[in-house]
Automatic annotation (TrEMBL):
PANTHER family named among the record's database cross-references: GNAT FAMILY, PUTATIVE (AFU_ORTHOLOGUE AFUA_3G00765)-RELATED-RELATED (PTHR43792), N-ACETYLTRANSFERASE DOMAIN-CONTAINING PROTEIN (PTHR43792:SF1)
Protein name: GNAT family N-acetyltransferase
InterPro entries per UniProt: Acyl_CoA_acyltransferase, GNAT_dom, N-acetyltransferase
Pfam families recorded: Acetyltransf_3
Xref: SUPFAM superfamilies: Acyl-CoA N-acyltransferases (Nat) (SSF55729)
Domain annotation N-acetyltransferase: ranges: 15-180
Native source species: Nocardioides potassii
Length: 186
């Protein structure tokens, strides 16, 4: 198995999706430490020290050399050079991926997450040749479900108590988008 070529940065009308840098720390602390932002993501509320440790680990997550690897990109607002979120793509298995995202609360509802997700889906389907991309959402995360619906994802499964999440059992929803669905929606 050989790696998948990832040509960074990805750009949209308002965002630059790029590798993380250590000078992203102040921006990341703002939303990694916000309980509302991390409520439905698989990491805990982080202080500055924990965010810095995590950031150091993310510096190398810009390649897809093997199944199971995550591509983790900073979502930088082009106009201000501020990192307002993160978007992720996992190379799950042959021609299959998984999408993830988290954005600072002050940037919710402005279309940034869908803009970033569309760019990463373009990378997945158009550049990397993926056939299927999934997203796993904790039930109750309605904003993420609405965003995925707008992208064309459909729910494939509902796993009652399917994950031990933040100290308790949580129901998870599995959504998916196929390559031909992506192409027909564009």
């Amino acid at each position: 198995m050989s790696g998948l070529p990832v040509d960074l940065p990805l750009t949209t009308d308002r965002l630059v999706l790029r590798a993380h840098r250590m000078d992203d720390l102040d921006d990341l602390v703002r939303f990694h430490g916000d309980p509302e932002v991390v409520r439905y993501v698989p990491w805990p509320v982080r202080d500055r020290e924990a965010t810095e440790e995590t950031l150091r680990a993310k510096l190398g997550q810009t390649v897809l050399d093997e199944h199971g690897q995550w591509l983790v990109l900073a979502a930088e607002l082009a106009s201000t050079k501020t990192v307002i979120g993160e978007v992720l793509l996992k190379w799950a298995s042959d021609r299959q991926g998984e999408l993830g995202f988290a954005f600072g609360r002050e940037h919710h509802g402005q279309g940034y997450a869908i803009e970033a997700a569309r760019a990463v889906l373009g990378l997945a389907f158009d550049d990397l040749g993926f056939h299927r991309v999934t997203a796993v959402v904790v039930e109750g995360n309605d904003p993420s479900l609405r965003l995925l619906d707008r992208l064309g994802f459909r729910q494939e499964a509902r796993h009652v108590d399917g994950a031990f999440f933040k100290g308790e059992w949580a129901t998870t929803l599995v959504l998916a988008l196929l390559e031909d669905e992506w192409r027909s929606s564009r």
